[in-house]
Each structure stands twice: as C-alpha cells, then as structure tokens.
C-alpha cells in the first residue's frame, strides 16, 4: 500500500471590508474582488461609522476605505480601523495633504481611482493583508515630495528649518514602500549638478530614503537586476563606491560620508 502525503491546504482567503459611500463603486469592487478564489468581501459600509461597526463584527484582514463619506468620513474612522486591520485608502481624493494625513493616521497605502488596473488592485489587496504597501502615482508623488523636503539641506549641511521631517516623515514610510510609480517620463528628473537621467534620479531618491534593491524594484516595476544596473551607473556618475557615499553626495553632504 502506497501512502501519499496529504495535499497542502490552500491559503486562507483574504477577508476584505469595502467602505465607500457610492453604491456603484461598492458593488463594482465587491464583484471584482469576489471573483478571486483567495479574496472574500465580508462586508460593505457606506460611511465611517458603518465601517467601524462592520470591522468590529467581521474582523477583516484588509479594509478598503474611501476618504470623503457623509457623517463620519474615512480620515475620521481611519485610526480606529487601523487598530483592527491594515487599511488601504481607495478614493478619488489625491490631494497631497490628504495623502499625508491618511498616512499619519495609520493607512498602509493609498490608491487613487483611475490610476491603477484591476490586476494592480488585486495585487494591492493581497499585499496589504501581508503589510506590504502600495501607492498609485499621485499618492506616491505626495510621499516623495515630502521625502525630498525632509532631505533638504542648507549650504552648511544642516536641515532647512521649514523642511524638517514631520512626525510622519516619508523617510519612515519608505522602509516598506511598494509604490505604483509613474513611468520614466513622469519622473522629476535629475538635480542640477548631477549627471543622472530621470530614472536614475528617481532611483537615487529611493536609495536616499533607505530602500533596499528589492523595494526599489517594486517601487519602479523593474527587476532587481535592472535596479543593480542603474545603481552601478549612478555610482560611476557620482564617483561613489557605496550607497552611503552616494546618499551623502545626493543630499549635498559629501563630507559626512564615511
């Protein structure tokens, strides 16, 4: 008699709460997510209060949360929801301050409608359940803008007073970012005095934020091998031999490099 090992159990489905005041959006999201074998929508909510009540009752793995809803809005409900499950903002509101406020209040990521595909949304839901963060381009731009402000230094190498990092500095969030970044053409380009291409400048910003090669690959939707090739070219152009030295040069503090 031949004994066969038991078949491995399929992974448990990601249990999702969808909170949006627009019933058409809720229905569309529920239909899209429910069509995947590994995702289950356990509840819907039309405002922040309903979202908190549903989260208490169903204990979801992921919350998809709109910003602007009647009564209790998404930002007001966010701190409570974030204590129950990782929250992905899914909204039409892409204002930089709204993005930053959502992150300060505990959001794991931020997607703006119209800036992602259905497959990207599915991936983001799965990753959010595993505490891996996603941003769509508008939200990523807001985070990078704050990161660059936080990295602004005066001629003496001191942080400029009006650009010092806030409590929710992008540097802290950058440790686990997996951004849905725009293409090369949407990059802000190289800094004056640095002979980097737009893509290289974008990658150098991410290096300076503390990202690993794997995180940068996820941020830019390229392979780790491509990231390494970019980094080698960056080091050659900046005449640096390490990430620390390149970061110091990029931030205008070459003398601080060790």
Task: Please sum up the structure shown.
This protein is an alpha/beta fold.
Describe this structure in words.
Helices cover 44% and strands 10% of the residues. It has eleven helices and five strands, in the order βαβαβαβαβααααααα. Strands 2-1-3-4-5 form a five-stranded parallel sheet, sandwiched between helices. α2 (48-58) packs parallel to α3 (74-82), α4 (96-104) packs across α6 and α9 (213-220) crosses α10 (224-238). The radius of gyration is 21 Å and the shape is globular.
The side-by-side strand order for the widest beta sheet comes to 2-1-3-4-5
Tell me what portion of residues adopts beta-strand conformation. Answer: 5-15%
Largest sheet: 5 strands, parallel
**What overall geometry do the principal axes of the alpha carbons give?**
globular
The helix-and-strand class reads: alpha/beta
**What is Rg?**
21 Å
């Amino acid at each position: 008699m031949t004994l066969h090992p038991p078949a491995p159990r399929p992974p448990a489905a990601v249990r999702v709460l969808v909170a949006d005041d627009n019933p058409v959006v809720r229905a569309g999201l529920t239909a899209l997510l429910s069509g995947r074998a590994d995702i289950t929508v356990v509840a819907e909510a039309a405002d922040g209060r309903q979202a908190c009540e549903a989260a208490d009752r169903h204990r979801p793995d992921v919350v998809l949360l709109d910003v602007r809803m009647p009564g209790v809005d998404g930002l007001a409900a966010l701190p409570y929801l974030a204590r129950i499950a990782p929250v992905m903002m899914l909204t039409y509101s892409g204002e930089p301050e709204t993005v930053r406020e959502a992150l300060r209040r505990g959001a794991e990521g931020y997607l703006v409608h119209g800036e992602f595909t259905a497959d990207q949304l599915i991936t983001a839901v799965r990753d959010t359940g595993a505490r891996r963060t996603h941003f769509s381009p508008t939200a990523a731009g807001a985070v990078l803008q704050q990161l660059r402000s936080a990295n602004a230094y005066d001629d003496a190498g001191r942080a400029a007073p009006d650009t010092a990092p806030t409590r929710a500095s992008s540097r802290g969030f950058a440790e686990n970012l997996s951004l849905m970044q725009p293409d090369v053409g949407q990059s802000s380009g190289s800094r004056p005095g640095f002979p980097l291409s737009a893509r290289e400048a974008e990658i150098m910003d991410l290096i300076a934020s503390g990202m690993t090669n794997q995180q940068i690959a996820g941020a830019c939707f390229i392979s780790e091998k491509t990231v390494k090739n970019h980094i080698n070219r960056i080091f050659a152009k900046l005449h640096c031999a390490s990430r620390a030295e390149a970061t110091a040069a990029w931030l205008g503090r070459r003398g601080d490099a060790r």
